[in-house]
Design a protein that fits this description.
Layout lengths: L1 E3 L12 H17 L3 H15 L2 H9 L3 H8 L11 H8 L5 E4 L4 H11 L7 E3 L13 H11 L7 E4 L2 H9 L3 E5 L24 E3 L2 H15 L6 H6 L3
Parallel strand pairs: 1-2, 1-4, 2-3, 4-5, 5-6
Length: about 240
Amino acid sequence: TWVFDLDNTLYPAECDLFAQIDHRMGTFIAETLDLSLDDAHALRKRYYFEHGTTLAGLICQHGVKPDDFLDYVHDIDLDVVAQSPELGAAIDALPGRKLVFTNGCRKHAERVTAKLGVLDRFEDIFDIHALEYLNPKPSREGFDRFVATHGIAGQKTAIFDDLPNNLETAHALGMTTVWIDCRAMGRPEHVAGEDWTELPDHIHHRTEALAPFIAAIGAALAEAAEGPASSARARLAMT
């Protein structure tokens, strides 16, 4: 099973959709709670770090209706997201099941993956609704719900995510973890590992570009399937 985060993973972080989403989150909070925009953004950041998502904080502290928030903040311009036939071909070459696991909403994930041209490659999108809003990644409860819903065996699963703390929980469940390294974007959630000289134990592999990385995996697996003589080369593809 191949599990993909959505934002900054399936599409390049350089698209910077979160700049739009962050702006709309701040505006929503300011208008809903009658705050200045500066105070709203400060609250957005605090709830993100305290609750895992800004939405979880707004639900717990203010009783915000999830769909009101999600519909508003994900009403963004996707012109910066380009069709990616390379990504589609790379996903097709991976044997087994493919799933999206996101703290965003299904509607947003469907719009983005459709824009990329890969929506039909995935068996399902497991989103914040399925997580019941209050157990987002990286919570163990959220991962356990995802695993149980889809009957996933950790030892037979690889997961791709831009946030190292999400991969820490996945690693605890026995998954092979691949970190999409977005440190160059300079966002607070991405710079935690900026001083790393080597990967921590819970991250098995890193890449800055998803499509060529999984294309190499697919090619190596296909070569390995031809006979045991190729198995060493297959293992090298994941280094």
